Amino acid sequence: MMSLYTLLLAAMAAGALGSTPALRRAPAGEVHHGRRNQLAAKPPRQEEVGLRMDGALDEPQWKQAAMLTGFSQFSPRDAVPAEDSTEVLVWYSATAMHFGVRAYEPHEAVRSALGDRDKIFSDDRVELLLGTFHDGRQAVVLGVNPLGIQMDGTLVENNQARGGGTGSSTTGREAPDLSPDFIFQSKGRLTSYGYEVEIRVPFKSLKYQSADTQTWGFNVVRIVQHSGRADSWAPALRANASFLRQSGTLEGLTGLRSGLVLDVSPEATQRTTGGPGEAGQPWRYDAERPKLGANVRWGLTNNFTLNGTVNPDFSQIESDEGQLQFDPRQALFFAEKRPFFLDGTEYFATPKNLVYTRRIVQPVAAGKLTGKVSGFSLGVLSAVDGLGGSTDGKTHPFYALGRAQRDFGAQGKLGITLTNRTEGGRYNTVASLDARRVFGSVYSAQAQYAHSFTRLSTGAASTNAPLWNTVISRNGKSFKFRYVMDAVDERFRTQSGFIGRGGIAAGLLDQWYTHYLAPGRFIESITFDPAVHYLWRYSALVHQGEALEKKLHTRIALTARGGWSADATLMTETFGFDPALYSRYRVLLGPGDTAAFTGSPRIGNRDFGFSLNTPQWQHVSLSAFYLWGSDENFLEWAPADIVFATLAAEVRPTERLRLSARYLKQRFVRQTDGTEVAATRIPRLKMEYQIARPLFVRLVGEYVSSSQASLIDDSRTGKALLVGGELSPAFTEGVFRSDFLFSYRPNPGTVLFMGYGAGYADTRDEPQAFRFPRSLSLAGLSRTDNVLYVKASYLYRI
Q1: pLDDT tens across 703-728, in order?
Q2: What is the DSSP string of 90-110?
Q3: Distance between CA 231 and CA 73 in Å, rounded?
Q4: In angstroms, how far is the first alpha carbon of the chain from the final one?
Q5: For 274, what's the count of Cα atoms within 13 Å in the CB-facing half-sphere?
Q6: d(Cα 139, Cα 135) in Å, to the nearest integer?
Q7: Is the dihedral of CA 167, 171, 177, 178 positive or negative?
Q8: 795: alpha, beta or left, given left = phi > 0 and alpha = psi -120 to 50?
């Protein structure tokens, strides 16, 4: 018979929901109420006999599972009871953890759709945070939507204040890195009271401690889209540098067996490329020989994994999205997408990005060891790159990357990173030391020092130079700050990492104040965020010279009920002339007569920025950013009127169809005569149709329209400019790119991709975004290249 306490819980749930199924019985396991601080759960160990992965929590095991309930709201307001009730059932077998979720939704319809992996951020969902090393520093994040569609990744907290900068930040917690994939099973279903989800996580898929009896950090976050709320089982305060340190625990886990962890993924790829033939010749196709390769993942122990790859195919199944280069002095960053490098990427994370694996272009072979033991996190990666990544096209570059990190204190870290790239007599070696510490629960401090040793050519003299940075932050609920000093010597080089702009030192003083309005109002919070930015040439900072850039950005941000957010920013700036950036420029005074280009000593700016984000509605969500005002025309070093806009929309007309549209625009207009200096427009449209859970088709189209006028000395003489001894002619160009993909992926290691991509050059006199001809072959768009590829791999879990 059910206990009186269990009957009372069932009655309370039925009263709150009004539509609880009559046959549902409350679990008989222990109940752990988060708001009552019952955060140490001891799930029972049971057998999997008779268990069905169907999303219905009706097997006997669920009746004995520990139940976690009593969720609290974390965002947008913490320390209040959740508006929607959630129950999480937990038990484990010898080989897997099992989670069952009952999410009650009495207010509005549950939002869910079929989609590809990691594409559930428009849906209601639950996220499990598994701290398998119980260190309060890192966790595996496994999420599912009401239909069981998965998202997964890792969270390594940097313990710094969050919420500053352009664009409203309302979550108050750090986002996981969704690059890594974990194999786990999930199934969900909609019910009359909300939804149920069943999740099985094999121990084979996780790294965890070697102890006989284990305690894991654990929390559950539920996202409710209709209200824009984020709830958590363990009550978490926004005034805290760490979300993970406020988790509960799963205790008394014994006899965990992962068995032999050996994943072998043979793969085959075939590619046929097309291009124009010689003058008067037909289109030419080149069918490459099928390429065979293999990836291996071997769990040496519960906490160490060895990855290897031989002759891998590292082609991407989707082109990188076009980006606008707002500041041409800053290199563009493109994220890593290749699976071998993504597994265990958290073990190579450094404050400055000294490990950027996209530097390894096409490795012949590579190996990687990652894991954690006795408070030490270790990662070692080595690779022999193909000739496509070499400097001379004759010598294979060799990469050796390593990082060791030691936990100290309750929330301290000390890390050492070594990277080395050698190519014949050329080399680049970087050694780095970094530390991080949290104190007073809301304050954190971080520092890093790195030194590079480089020889760019055989027999040349070597150079060495430093990089360093410090960060102090406070992550309070109403008052936060983040103070940063970041410096890179002009001679610092990293051929294994990514530095957006070298030779500069930057300082930031950013603080923001948030006022929370009374519950029930449409406006929920108002944030005032003044930030001061200074930037020097590194040598000028060392010799106490004047700053090149001085900026004051004043932002006001609003969050509103249901998930609305908006902000407005006033940017007051001055920029000093940097001769090093214009060393190749000359002013053409007359035939054969040139003069040095000195530019105006300093340019003053005033810009206005505005952003708006709608809620994630059932079928659509929108976002917009618009910046205008007086800013730099870096091409001519002169003041210009600028427009920078980003418009994005996601439309979900059915649970299977998803349309994503984005439009980027950047335009510079001379203030002297109103003529256009440069403009870029990039419309992008992506259509995805989910035929079944593992099967989808995708079509992407992107058009890049760019134009630039002949450059002149606009701020001084009005004469033409020479760049590298040549006049800079005006140009207008347009490029269209289309990609089609058929994808079958029942799990992250077993895939079948069939894709087709093509590029087109716009030969019309004035290419313009959105002015597409009726026929690509007849009205000005000529095909420049195309590719057809097939890739197949199969995951053997031995």
Answers
A1: 999 999 999 999 889 999 999 999 98
A2: EEE-SSEEEEEEEEE--SSPP
A3: 4
A4: 44
A5: 14
A6: 9
A7: negative
A8: beta
Closest CA to 89 of 54, 60, 109: 60
Joined together, the tokens standing for residue 419 give 């990277």
Spell out a b/e string for 135-168, using b for 16 or more CB atoms within 10 Å of the CB, else e: bbbbbbbbbbbbbbbbbbbbbbbbbbbbbbbbbb
Residue count (the chain): 798
Report the C-alpha dihedral over residues 161, 153, 486, 404, rounded to 10 degrees. Answer: 120
In the three-class reduction of DSSP (H, G, I as helix; E, B as strand; rest coil), residue 688 is classed as strand
CB distance 700 to 321 below 8 Å: no
pLDDT at 321: 58
Cis peptide before 76 (omega within 30 of 0): yes
As given in the structure block, the two tokens for residue 213 are 């009896």
Q: Coil, helix or strand for 226?
A: coil
Distance (Å, whole) CA 752 – CA 391? 34
Q: Which residue type is seen at 339? A: P
Band (pLDDT 50/70/90 cuts) for residue 4 is very low
pLDDT over threshold 60, residue 676: yes
How far is the C-alpha of 603 from the C-alpha of 608, rounded, in Å? 17
Ramachandran area for residue 625 (φ above 0: left; ψ -120 to 50: alpha; else beta): beta
The helix/strand/coil state of 544 is coil
Task: For residues 229 and 519, give the distance between their C-alpha atoms in angstroms, rounded to a whole number.
Answer: 13
Report CA-CA distances (Å) from 691 to 655, 721, 743, 789, 791: 10, 56, 10, 21, 19
The model carries a pTM of 0.86
Quick one: DSSP state of residue 356? -
**Mean pLDDT, rounded, for 764-791:** 66
Query: What is the rounded distance in angstroms from the CA atom of residue 188 to the CA atom of residue 254?
Result: 28
If you write DSSP's letter for every residue of 385-452 in order, what string do you get?
E-GGG-SSSSS--EEEEEEEEEEETTTEEEEEEEEEEEETTEEEEEEEEEEEEEETTTEEEEEEEEEE
**Beta pairing, strands 96-104 & 194-202:** antiparallel
